[in-house]
Amino acid sequence: MIDQTKVPNTREDWLEMVKLWKESGLTKKVFCREMSIKSSQFSYYCKIYRDQNKSNLNFVEVKAAPSATLSLKLCGQHELAIPSDFDEPTLLRLLSVANKVQ
Q: Closest Cα partner for 81 from 90, 70, 92, 73?
């Protein structure tokens, strides 16, 4: 942990200071003023910190959810909710039965 009464000397100290800033919730300008450090120098290490952490990003596959349901109105009286992954032969049989009922 960095002694907050001293200006950071090493790269590791500066990167630790960037972590402290991120956890503080303060703006960069306010943090630099409170820590008595040069904002230009701090910004330089913020960029280094950001660049180092870019390589640590992990990507995950995101699959889109299928649309909820299709809606089919029969003779204006009945509504059939059909999931997007419906079984076609079953739907055709159901429509055939519905057609005979009309």
A: 70
